[in-house]
Write a structure and sequence with these properties.
The structure is a single chain. Helix content is 76%, strand content 0%. The chain contains eleven helices and no strands. It has helices at residues 11-44, 50-62, 65-76, 81-90, 98-122, 126-134, 139-150, 152-167, 171-177, 187-197, 200-225.
Length: 231
Amino acid sequence: MDFIWIDLTSPAFITPFLLTLKVSGLAVVFSLVLGVAAAFLLTRRPFPGRDLLDALCTLPLVMPPTVLGYYILVLVGRRGFIGQWLQDSFGISLMFTWQGATIAATVVAFPLVFKSARAALEGVGSRYEDAARTLGQNELSVFLRVSLPLAFRGIISGGMLAFARAMGEFGATLMIAGNLPGRTQTLSLAVYSAVQAGNDALANTLVLIISIVCVVILVITGKLLQPKFRQ
C-alpha cells in the first residue's frame, strides 16, 4: 500500500468529518444529560431493581454494535414501537438520516459517561452534601452546587471518552442510518467505503485523523484522572 494522502480541504474528507463532529457532539450532549442523571439516581437513591438498571445502563458497553443497531431498529425503525408512532403522528422517519446516526452514537457512548459519572459521584463525600442540606439547600441546589462541581473532572473525562467512541461508531450506525455519502456517512463509514473502493489516499488520511483525535483525547483524559488534578 502506498502511503499517499488527500487534500484536507477535499469534500471527500470535509463532508464526513463535519458530519462526524455534529453526530458525535450531539451524542455526547445527550449522553452527559442521561448518563449523569442515571448515575446520580443509582448512587443516591436505593430502590428495588437498582442492580438490574445498572446492568442495563452498562449493557451497550459489552454488546456487539450490530445487536445494538437491531434493538434501535426495533424501537425507532419504520415498523418499530416509537418509529411507527413518529411516522404516523408527525411524518418523521429516523431511518437513513443523520438523526438516526446520532441515536446510534448516543447509545454506544452512553455507558462511558454513565460509568465515569457514577465513579465520580461515589467519590464525592456525603458530608459535603449533608452540610449543604443543613444550610437549607434543596436537593437540586445540593446537586448543582456541591455534587456536580466535585464530580466535574470525572464526568468530563467520561464525556471525552464518549466523544472518541462516538467518532469510531460503525455497526449500529450502519444498521440505522446506512452509508450514504453526504447524508449519513461518518468518518468510520468513509474509511470502510474508501478501503472497499481501493482509495488508499482517502483511507490513510481518515484513519490518521481519527487516530490523532483519539490519542489526544486519551492523553487529556489521563491527565484529568491523575490524583493531582482531583479535588
